[in-house]
Amino acid sequence: MFGYRVPAPDEAMLISGGRRGLGGAPFRVVTGHGKFVLPVFRKVRFLTLSMCESEVTETCVTRQGIALHVRAVIAFKVGNDHESIINAGQRFLSDQEQMSVLTGRIFAGHLRAIIGSMTVEEIVTERQKLAAEVLDTSKTEMAKIGLIVDSLQIQSIDDGDTGYIDAMSAPHKAAIQRQAQIAQAQATQTAAEAQQEAARKQAEYARQTAVVKAAYSAEVDRAQAQAAQAGPLAQAHAQQEVLAAQTELAQRQAKLRQQQLVAEVVKPAEAEAERVRILAAAEAQRMKIQAEAAASYDRVALDRMLIDQLPQIVKEAAGGLAGANVNVLNGADGLGEIAAGLVSQGLTILDSVRQNLGSQDSDSARPAGNRSESKGNGLLQLPTSKEKKSNDGPVDVD
């Protein structure tokens, strides 16, 4: 917009004309924002607030009377407060380049004064102290003109052709050279020791290598000798192993043949013998059962025959009473008692015969000698089924 002015971030806008600024300043100060300025009636100027640099090269005399050429660099700027801007604007607004010139002159004077109160040794060894004293002495004077110093650097100090600084540094140089020589000698000695150690190690390595080679050669010779002797020994050992293997094979074959014989001959023979034994036992059991059955049948037949003969026995007994003189006293009862007695007698006879037959059966179960004794009793001996079977011939049981 026409008449509206804005300063740059590193500038201060000074507006003259119209009412005065703060503190009775002849202009108003505007920073960081714009301002409407009436043309013709107001005048606007800009003062830089950026960093400036001034270089000082000055010949100074120390307290010892020795001239030193000192080169320093000062970094400064206009202060940010309105008072500093006003002070700097009143002094440098028309020619802002004069700020560097005036700052250099101010610092040159303070530098000469401070160096004149110090020795060369202090100046050389304590440059930071020199810079701090220069800043402290120039701070008030710089503030009056609206400037502030950010830093002061002493770049070089030279005594020209006097050689004082060189002479001052000569002991240090000699000490340094001496230390360098000592270090060089130590390095040389260390190198020599290292070479000697390397030579010793190399000799030791050569000796160990020779020992190893000799041991290797001896081992090779011993192995060759063992290999030469191992031929017959290995052959004999191999033959021994072959004989052992053949012996083991023969034993295995004999054991196998034995197993085959057991399987082919012994087992079938044992099985046949077992079969014959079982058949013989079964045949003997069958004959025993048949003999017992025959004996039982003979007793039943004998009992039946005796029972069938009982009436004849009673009849014969009655016939014996036919010619006897028997008196019957109680009539029919008496006759009945006589008949019952006859029957009872017949039964007694039947029992006697049966008992005799039973004793014959028991004699048949006794050994041959006992049976011969029973035959001597004069009783009728009936052969049993077992005796009939035994008469057919002996039975061979395996």
E-strand count? 8
Count of separate DSSP helical elements: 8
SSE string: EEEEEEEHHHHEHHHH
Strand ordering within the main sheet: 3-2-5
Q: What proportion strand? A: 5-15%
The chain-level mean pLDDT equals: 78
The best one-word shape is elongated
Q: Which radius of gyration do the C-alpha atoms yield?
A: 82 Å
Q: What's the end-to-end separation, in Å?
A: 152 Å
Low-confidence stretches: 365-398
Please state the structural category: alpha+beta
How many strands, what sense, and barrel or not for the largest sheet?
Answer: 3 strands, antiparallel
Oligomerization category of the chains in this entry? single chain
Helix content: 55-70%
List the helices and strands and how they pair.
Blueprint: E1 4-5, E2 11-16, E3 27-30, E4 35-36, E5 43-48, E6 52-61, E7 67-78, H1 82-92, H2 98-116, H3 120-125, H4 127-144, E8 147-158, H5 164-320, H6 331-365, H7 368-375, H8 385-391
Please give a quick description of this structure.
This protein is an alpha+beta fold and 398 residues long.
